[in-house]
Amino acid sequence: MNRLFPLPLRKQIENALKNESYIIGSVLANGLNTNDVENAILYETIKESCAMLYFSVGFFPKAYEIFKELKTDILSVADLFPNINLRGFSPKTDLRARCKFKKKILKGGELESAINCFIDYLSDLRMSALNKNPEDYQFIVITNLLVKCYVINNPKIIIPIMSLPNTPRLVDEFEDIFKEHQLYEELAYFYLTRQLHHKGMLIIYSSN
């Protein structure tokens, strides 16, 4: 009499990954012992693929939840959006290429929804950041990405964010961004935070 034995958990997850059954594989991966190095790599791979699947079908909160759990590089997540990433800051990985997903072009209401969810994700990361030193690289990246999202979705929030204690200085490209979007109050504030008082006052006087 032949007996059927269940496949080992690791093999089941590998099969799920091979068959692009990422959600099933992600659930199975919760049972892995991630103290084992190979298991940890498999766990991250299947979870990341699951996050990308969620992102590709518009389930953005679920995708960000996994990215947060995995501590995925924020710039790599930002690279999933058009024109959101910061000039001169390089993502650690191309999530689409790594997970073999075709490039999804976000636009219209879907882009707005994705950015709103990304704002929630960044806000959560910013509030829970252990190091809120304005010179901390991660804190700088989070804050600048957050402001860049608000330029698109809700510019009125920008100055209050810039006014918060220990808020990192905005990167240079915001001078052009604020000009492009005709955000002159924000541009004046940008100059003043950099001690460029003459430029800041010129903007203030010219806008009155």
From TrEMBL:
It is a peripheral membrane protein. It holds the Pfam family Vps39_1. Keywords: Membrane. It is found in: Endomembrane system. InterPro entries: Vam6/VPS39/TRAP1 (IPR032914), VPS39/TGF_beta_rcpt-assoc_1 (IPR019452). Residues 146-201 form the Vacuolar sorting protein 39/Transforming growth factor beta receptor-associated domain. It comes from the Eukaryota. One of its GO terms (cellular component) is cytoplasm. Its main location: membrane. One of its GO terms (biological process) is autophagy. Belongs to the VAM6/VPS39 family. This is Vam6/Vps39-like protein.
